[in-house]
Please model this.
Amino acid sequence: MNRMDSKQSAAIARIRQICCAGLPSRSFVPMVVKELRESIPSVYGQFTWSNEQGRVINAWSDRFLPRRAAWIILHFERYAIDAGISIPDLLLFGKPTGNLRVCGEPAFEATPTYAAIFKPYGFKWSLDGVVRDAMRPYGFFGLFRELGQPDFSHADEELLARTLPYVAHAMRVEVARPARFVRGAGRSALVVCDAQGEVVEWSEQAHHLAVFALMDSINLETEIESDDFRAVRPALREVALALRGRMEEGGDALPTLVRSNGWGEFVFRAYRLSGPHGPSERFGILIEQLVPFEAHLLDRVNATGLTVRQKEIALLSAKGLPNAEVARRLHITPNTLKDYFKAIYTRLDINSHQQLVERLSADQVD
Model:
């Protein structure tokens, strides 16, 4: 196995782990997009969910580009002509990957679609991957590169294609919302508001977090205003004023609100800000995304030096599955499982299952 094949196999193994972690799609899809972008270097990654008829119903992206997404939906006929395929046809009848490679051809640069959603962001190359099975389509991935970067290769396309069955299998299984969320590898960012709760400053990361914390789903047909979803700022202002009220009451050192929706749990914490001449009317709000406990365990497992099989065993065991169930799921004998545990304990320099759980659950905060 050459170095590239080894790198691809490791990436596919990580994505397979994510898809087998027992998480709902809105929890694991961002993790898969992150892995894909690291394995297939891209400047932007997204996933778009669909219903059984191939109609777009939700979307997640790792950069905040609502106007781009909304333009595709609101001008779907023009997009279908320029891209050479409509989104429903892509989802229902398209190839597993490579349906939108026409977007990299010189003639595409003369189209309205290029002018509206590629040129403003500097995008040049795109690679799509359709997630579906014999029952229905579930959605599609999109990866993008900029002008001046190389086009996606056949190896990139093959790697994406090999991950799609795992994602389809995970989406086919109905999974309940995670029962526990913890501080782990979640993202956080600061928003600065004025005395009336209006946003004064925020980074793209903070903007992105606010949208997903305050919108239960991303309706791409929603009105777009100044590259923002119209409902976001009023919702954030309501949170900001509630936190400011708690600060003025003086009861909480760091006033906190928690918002939960289909994307997970988000914590808003208020901070007093100082100006050059003393206390300021402005205040900061730190938005922190908590992670499902299962995702936290997966991050911790992948930070160890265990083999792929050892990681699978450690993850299932740390989630609380009895040894007999772990052996059954992995199609190994109880004695073989004992041998694996001995190797895991030696590698991690621990002596018991309890120490394994403590090692993998470290730094969690409910």
